[in-house]
Design goal:
Largest sheet: 8 strands, parallel, barrel
Strand content: 15-25%
Number of helices: 10
Number of strands: 8
Shape: globular
CATH superfamily: Aldolase class I
Distance between the termini: 9 Å
CATH class: Alpha Beta
Structural class: alpha/beta
Low-confidence stretches: 203-215
Helix content: 40-55%
């Protein structure tokens, strides 16, 4: 099982805008998209997830669903991503197909260790930068925070940086031992940046095949 090094986390002011941005991301070469909709009914989320699955399937792009693991199973998404305050991935695994991947968000070394104990397929570690528009956001880790965690956490499980990351940050982040990125704002502002991110991550298809999960 392999995982692309670049994840696009969907953004938009409406479900329709999320779908339009997912389409743009796929058109621009995104290999994996995470559908992340908040404050929406499960029924509406399912409808949007089905449309997102159609778009991503057309481009052979992988699709992760944020938090709603039952919907991830229903639309046969490639997996599910859990935020820090969401359901337990162990419970989700019992519902999901064996081939679906499960990832989770972490902010501390302890968070990472908990996710590894639950056999997460990848860990999104962050935020890299502080988000000035949101309240009660976990501490920004920055390069020093990433280094402190990766120095101690010896794992073959992919670690993805997230949180305000731009193309200018990629080289320094990779030098900390982080192996991939989950990006939202920078890509939504300029979908052409997907190519730049991929080049910097060296995330060509040949590289990806060498970059496999450890069981």
């Amino acid at each position: 099982m392999t995982i692309p090094k670049l994840h696009y986390i969907s953004q938009g002011n409406s479900p329709k805008e999320h779908l339009e941005n997912i389409q743009k991301a796929c058109t621009s070469g995104a290999e994996l998209v995470q559908l992340r909709l908040k404050d929406i009914s499960e029924k509406k989320f399912l409808k949007v997830a089905k449309e997102a699955r159609e778009i991503t399937a057309h481009f052979q792009t992988r699709l992760l669903i944020n938090d709603h693991y039952k919907i991830a199973k229903e639309v046969k998404a490639d997996g599910v991503h859990f935020g820090q305050a969401s359901s337990c991935s162990t419970t989700a695994r019992k519902h999901l197909y064996t081939w679906q991947i499960v990832g989770g968000t972490a902010n501390t070394l302890q968070d990472c260790e908990i996710l590894l104990d639950k056999q997460a397929n990848y860990i999104s570690l962050g935020p890299f930068r502080a988000n000035t528009t949101k309240e009660n956001v976990p501490t920004a880790l920055g390069i020093a925070g990433y280094t402190a965690i990766t120095d101690v956490l010896k794992t073959g499980t992919p670690l993805l940086g997230f949180g305000g990351i731009t193309t200018e940050d990629v080289t320094a982040i990779l030098n900390t031992g982080i192996s991939g990125l989950a990006v939202s704002g920078a890509i939504t502002r300029n979908f052409k940046s997907i190519r730049t991110f991929n080049e910097l991550l060296n995330a060509s298809s040949t590289e990806e095949q060498r970059y496999t999960f450890t069981k």
